[in-house]
Amino acid sequence: MTETETETAGHARTVAAPADTTRDELDAVVAAARRAFAITVASTAAERASWLRAAADALDAARDELVPIADEETHLGAARLNGEVARTTAQLRLFADAILEGSYLEATIDHPDGTTIPPRPDLRRMLRPLGPVAVFGASNFPFAFSVAGGDTASALAAGCPVIVKGHPAHARLSARTADVVAGALVAAGAPDGIFGHVTGHETGVALVQHPEVRAVGFTGSLAGGRALFDLAQQRPDPIPFYGELSAVNPVLITPAAIDARADDLAAGLAGSFTLGVGQFCTNPGVVLAPAGAGFGERVRAAVDGASAGPATMLTEGIAAAFASGVAGLAARDDVEVVASDPTAQQVGTGSPVVLRTTTAAVIADPGALFHECFGPSTLIVEYTDVADALAAVRAVGGSLTATVHAQPGDELAPIVEVLSEVAGRVLFSGWPTGVAVSWAQQHGGPWPSTTSIHTSVGVSALRRFLRPIAFQDAPHAALPPELRDGNPRAIPRRVDGVLVLPGDARADADATAAGARAGHAPAAG
Amino acid sequence: MTETETETAGHARTVAAPADTTRDELDAVVAAARRAFAITVASTAAERASWLRAAADALDAARDELVPIADEETHLGAARLNGEVARTTAQLRLFADAILEGSYLEATIDHPDGTTIPPRPDLRRMLRPLGPVAVFGASNFPFAFSVAGGDTASALAAGCPVIVKGHPAHARLSARTADVVAGALVAAGAPDGIFGHVTGHETGVALVQHPEVRAVGFTGSLAGGRALFDLAQQRPDPIPFYGELSAVNPVLITPAAIDARADDLAAGLAGSFTLGVGQFCTNPGVVLAPAGAGFGERVRAAVDGASAGPATMLTEGIAAAFASGVAGLAARDDVEVVASDPTAQQVGTGSPVVLRTTTAAVIADPGALFHECFGPSTLIVEYTDVADALAAVRAVGGSLTATVHAQPGDELAPIVEVLSEVAGRVLFSGWPTGVAVSWAQQHGGPWPSTTSIHTSVGVSALRRFLRPIAFQDAPHAALPPELRDGNPRAIPRRVDGVLVLPGDARADADATAAGARAGHAPAAG
Predict the structure, then answer these.
(1) Residue B473: its chain A contacts at CB < 8 A?
(2) Is B233–A230 a contact, with Cβ atoms under 8 angstroms apart?
(3) ipTM of the complex model
(4) Cis before residue A119, ω within 30 degrees of 0?
C-alpha cells in the first residue's frame, strides 16, 4: 500500500491515511490469510489466547499514541476514547479466557451403541474455524467495533485469520491500529498473514466476493450492510454475513412509572439519546410514553439543563443524514417538534431533537415514522392505552434492544412478550446505550437490527466463525486432543448425552469404559 | 384443500393426492401457525416433549397403514421403509429427551459486576424459538427427511410451529402422515395450527416469501435449493434457509489399505453406492484408489456378485437425470466405463454404473467430473501419489462426508487435514451411507452440501430454529423460569462464566449469593 498526504493540513501527522488497496494487493493479503489458516486451524487455544493477550497489551501500550489520532478523526473526545481502548482490550482478554475454558467447542462424544435406531458408530463432534474472515468496522466505535473490535477478537479466538476493511471515517487510526495489532500477533508467535488491513470501497466489495473469504462481520448502515449482505449471498458459494445494521430501540414507559418518576425518566432519556452525539446503535430512538404527562417537555427541560448544544458528529455525511432525517419527520403533520428546530442543524454537527407523535399515527404509517435517524434524536410516541403502545412496538420491527420502565404493581408479562419478540436484549428500568461485554450479552435481534441468529458482542460471538465437524470411528491418534479419551485438554464435554465437566470423575470413567466397549485402546492409533 | 383422483388407477386408494394449496389456504395455514406460536413460544420443554412423543407414538401406530402407501410411491421396499419409520419416531423421541435436558437453551447468567470494563448489569441470556418454520422434505427419505423428519422434529422441539410443503414424489404419503402428526399433536395438547401441510410448487415459493415464516428447512437438489435459498435471502427481511443440497462424498483408499483388503473394500463400496438405488445424500460418488490395483474390476465383480440389476428409482425424473448424468460422464475421453453400459439405463430405473478416471483429469476439470449423479453410480479416480489424491479431494469442494480407508502404519494427519476441510463428517474405515441420529452427529458441510454452519441431523439441529435473547436487570418474576435464581427447571447453566450442572451445590449457592448482591430477592417481582 502507498500512503497519501493527510488531508488535515493544519496538524502535522506522522500517520497518513493509506491509499486504496489494489486488487493485486488484496489478493496477496487474502492469500497470506489463507496460508495462515493452515496454521491457525491446528493451533491450540493456549496459543491463540497468548496471541490475543499480546494484541491487547500492545494496544494498551499504544493508547496514548492512538487516542489523539482517533479524537481528531472522530471528535468523540479523549475520555470516551480512552475508555473505549480499555473496553477493546478487555474484550480481547475475555475471548482468550473463553477459548481456554473450552465450552465454545461444543465437544461431544457418542460411543458406539447398537441398540439405537439406527445403530450408531463412534461419533465425536466439535467446532472448527471457518477460514479467513472479512471484518467491516463501524464509524462510531473506532476501537471497540473496528480494527481490533469484537468481530476481529472473536474470529481470531475461533482460529480464523482476519482481514479488516478500514473505515474511511477513521482511516489513519485504522491503519495505525492494524500495524500495532499485526505486529503484536506475529511477535507473539502467530503466523504471518493472520491479520490484514485493506482500504477502499471497491476493495470491500471484492473482499466479500473473494473465493478464499469464508465469512464476513459488518457493523454499519442498513443500506451499506444490505448491499454487502446481498453480494455475500449471491456468491457461487454463499458465505455467512454477520451484519449489525439498524435499530430504533423502543422504550416503553408505563403510566405508573411516569407517575412515580417522570423527571428521573426524562433525565435518563436525555442522557441516553444524546450520549456520544446520539451515535450509538443502541440509541433509544422511539419512546412510548403515556399521553398527558408532559413527558416531552420534561425531556426538553432535561436536555436544556444539560446544555447539550450542537456537537461535531463523526463525519459531515452522518451529520447531513441526521439533519435530513429529523427535518423529514418534523415536516409531517402528525409529528410535533418538542425541542430544538430540526431544520436548523449546523453543518457537521448534531443538536438534540425531541419529536412527538401518537400511537395512531405510528400504526397508520410505521415505515415512515420508524427508521433510524442516526444521531441525537428521539421520537416520543404518546399512548392512552398500553395495548396501543404494544401495537406500536410491534410495528417498530426488529431492534437490538427494547426497554420497559415499570413499577412493581405493573403487569409485566404482556409487555415482556412483545419486547422479546422485537428485540435481542430486553431491559428493565435502564437505558440501552452501553453494551457490557460478557458471557450472557446479546447484541443482535430480528431484521433489520442484525442479519443472523447470532450475537456480535459477548462470548457466544465465537459461534459465528465456527462450523461443526464429526469424526466417525476415528483411530484415537487421528482425533483432535479435545475429543480424545481422558479429556487431555480438560474442557467441558458431552459424553453419551451427559454433560461432563473437567475434573469430574465421571468424565474419565465414562470415556475409559466406553472406549473399551468400542474396542478403542486409549493410546493406540 | 380439495382432493383429486389418484393417478395410479390400477390400485384402489383410500388416500388421494391433495390438489395444490391456494394462496388463501396458504395464508390461513400460516396465520394459524402464527397464532400457535404465541402459545408454543411460552410452552415448557415438558409440554413439547409430550407432544413430540405423542406424534412418535401415533406414527408407530400408523406404520402398517403408511408404509404400503410409501412403498407404492417410492418403490423403496417395506423393509427399508419400516426401518425408516422407526428411525423417524426415535428421532422425535431423542429431541424430546434433549429439550428436557435443557443445555440447548444455552442459559447463561452474569451477575452485576462494577469491576469489568465496561461495568456490567445483571444479564441473563437464553435461546428463544424463531417463529413459524417452513419445511421442504426430501424425495429419498419419505419419513426421516420429510413430513415428520429431522427438520420438523427439531423445529417443533425448539418451540416453532411447522408448515410442511409436501413432496410431489410421495404426495399421498405426505398428506396422510401430516394428518397423523397434526392430529396427534393437537390431541396431546399442542395448539391448533402448530402443524400445517401445503402442496404445490407455487405454494412452496410463496411459503418461503411469506412474511410470517421465520426460517426454512430444505432437503433436495442443488438447483431447487439454490432457487429457494435465493428467494429467502432476497426477502425484505431475509430469513435463515437451512438447505442440504448436494454432495459427492469422496472416499480415499490408501495403498496399504488396498494391499490389505481390496476385495473387502470393493464389496463395501458396491454395497454402499447401490444402497437404496444409490438415492442417498451420503452416496460415495467419488473414490480415490491407487492405480494399478484393478480396484474398478473388483468393484464390478462385487456388483455382479450382488446381482444388483435395474431397480425402480423414486421418480421417472430422477431416473432420467441419473441416466443423463452418467451418460455424460461416460462420453468423455478421460472417463472409462468399468461396469454396465450407462447409455442403456431403462426408463424409470437405475442400474449400477462404475466409471474410472485419473487425478490428472480431475484436477484439469473438477467442475465437470465432480457433480452429484443422484443414483447408483461411483467414479473411481486412480492416483499414483497420495498428494495427487488429496489435491483431487480438495478440488471436489464441499461434501457432507469424506472417508479414508487406511492401515495402522499410514500417516493420517495430512489426509485428515484435507478431509476435514471439505466435509462435515470424516469417516475412518466405514462407508458414508447411514446417518446415526445422536448428540454428536453432524450432517452438513461446506457449500454446496449445505447452506449454513449448522446440522440437519442430530441434537444440535435445534440451534437452527432459535435465537438468543438477553434480559437486563429483570425483576425476578419477569424472567423465564430457566433463568431464575435457584434454577427451578434444573438445567445446565453458565453462571458468571462457570458452567454449573443441575444438582451441583455451586449452582444454587452462586445464584443466591449473587442474587443478593444484585439486590434481587429470589421470589420477588
Answers:
(1) 427-430
(2) yes
(3) 0.94
(4) no
